[in-house]
Amino acid sequence: MAKLPTRFETAVRAARAHLVRLEGWLSAYRLPLSMVAFNVTGAASLVWLCGWRGVSATDLVVFGTMYLLGVIGLEIGMHRYFSHRAFEVTPALRNALVILGSMGGQGSALVWATNHRKHHRFADQDGDPHSPRPRGEGRIGVLRGLVHGHFTWHFAEATSMGMRDLHRYGRDLVSDRDLMRVDRYFWRWVALGMVVPAIAGLAVTRTLDGAFTAFLWGGPVRVFAVDNAIWMINSVAHSCGPAPFDARDRSRNVWWLVVPLLGGGWHNTHHAFPGSARMALLPGQIDPGFWIIRALECLGQAHSLRVAQPRGDSSPPAPD
Ligand SMILES: [Zn+2]
Ligand SMILES: [Zn+2]
């Protein structure tokens, strides 16, 4: 006759099952959990550095350089190139864009572009991974929508990509072996984004203290700044501001995000002409990201730029 498990054995089995479930959850949410860790560390470091530690010129230069490279990687690389194919690049530049874009810790080129293409496909409708539409009644519902669009969408079930999403929105990326060879090392590129500022600080100051503060400024603080600027496109630029084009969604142009995001603030224009390498299409608007793409073209690193005309869209529709 089989022996019944004791209360202790039952408790051990339940604890084991709980750990297995927790392990599965942690692995499924590894990316958003790492974003929380980087952003909380970045915000806390910023308060400590500005409030108590003080800021050196080296720290500011390291932060500014890493911020610029990070936004180039995300706005020009992950967004205009990998998501929309608004221009073509040399293999060397493509690899550089994967590495710089990954340093923001927002996911590999495959993950980022697939989610973003899905966003354009369902913009502000059911199926959009990060629409900030109100989620409930009144001001609380509006706030909940904004928080979801800004960050908590990363934890939502709709964000976890299945084979169907990769098949529909990322087929060209998955089948690009050269791209996948670099893109698979996403976590190494994230780590590189932490190591490079520390080395730069050590090289300039020749002190461990200088290396440490440069690491904080160029690493977690830079990730906090870059990530939240990019996420404001999902929350703020789908909520308030003018919409000069009828994009059939809630996308808006937000002028004060234009400089921090190298032109990415013209988000309503972008939704109306998603395949355009240039986002500033109205008189008086600037697009630093497009200037950089033009400079890369002059250097022989980019070609076949697609530029939409406000009267008569030259861009193809968003991937279906
Ligand atoms: Zn959008
Ligand atoms: Zn886009």
Total count of helical runs of at least 4 residues: 13
Strand content: under 5%
> How would you state the average pLDDT, rounded?
91
Q: In angstroms, what separates the terminal alpha carbons?
A: 61 Å
SS-based class: mainly alpha
Give the tally of β-strands: 2
Task: Please give the radius of gyration in angstroms.
Answer: 22 Å
- Overall helicity: 55-70%
- Please give the order of strands in the largest beta sheet: 1-2
What general outline do the C-alpha atoms trace? globular
- Residue ranges: pLDDT <50 for 5 or more in a row? 312-320
Main pleated sheet: 2 strands, antiparallel
The hetero molecules present are: zinc ion
